[in-house]
Amino acid sequence: MKRTLLGLFFCGIFGSTQAATLSISDPHAMTFSGYDGQPLTVTGAESHGSFGSLSTTSAGTFYATYLGNESSYNNSFSLGAGATLTEASLLGATISKAVSAGIVGFSFSDSVGFTFSNGTAQTSVLGYTILPGQSNPYGTFDYVLGFNDSAKVDADYDDYVVGVRFVATPVPFVATPVPEPETYAMLLAGLGLMGIVTRRRKFCSK
Predict the structure, then answer these.
(1) Tens digits of residue pLDDT in 104-120
(2) pTM to 2 decimals?
(3) φ and ψ at residue 42, rounded to 5 degrees
(4) Is residue 194 part of a domain?
């Protein structure tokens, strides 16, 4: 009995953990040249990625870590007021934001006034590519995002690079109360009493 209850308890705990993820909405494969990570030792070189938007399947916390840049502009990445990474940020600097299920609110900007937000339609130059997740000296990431600013001299998607990851908010587990031994004793006593009453009624009816 104890083993059964314990098994149900653990099943309830593990069952309450959502398989929540950070995923690419409407992904379109793309190729490019010239991406070398900046510095190359952090993310390595890439030539394939995806256009698309990042969204989550549940509420949680979205993290972004600065991994480098290669640009004559001063670019930045923002999760909203008070949560911005710039080219003055140290490599490995991380910001975070509590998010709801759906499209994650973030944007890249360059110093000449152009901003590209998550969920915006990709253009031929301005925008970002979504690269595969990886582990590097600054963390383990679901995806790496490479921004290409509005300068039209290239489209190499390493003008500002961040690693992103998502951690879902745990769903509280509500355990079903297990009856105390005293409750079982009272239940058995009640059943016994009912049995005695039933037997007496049968006896009296004879």
Answers:
(1) 999 999 999 999 999 99
(2) 0.76
(3) -85, -60
(4) yes
Model pLDDT, residue 14: 41
Distance CA 194, CA 190 (A): 6
Structural domain range at position 152: 19-168
pLDDT category of residue 7 using cuts at 50, 70 and 90: very low
Nearest alpha-carbon partner for 56 in 106, 120, 103, 107: 103
Residues 6+ apart with CB under 8 A from 11: none
The residue type found at 51 is F
CB 55 within 8 A of CB 61: no
pLDDT digit string (tens) for 14-55? Answer: 443 445 799 999 999 999 999 999 888 899 999 999 999 999
Number of domains in the chain: 2
Please list, in sequence order, all residues whose beta carbon lies within 8 angstroms of the beta carbon of residue 73, skipping any fewer than 6 positions away.
Answer: 110, 111, 112, 149, 150, 151, 159
Whether 52 and 135 map to the same domain: the answer is yes
DSSP 3-state assignment of 2? helix
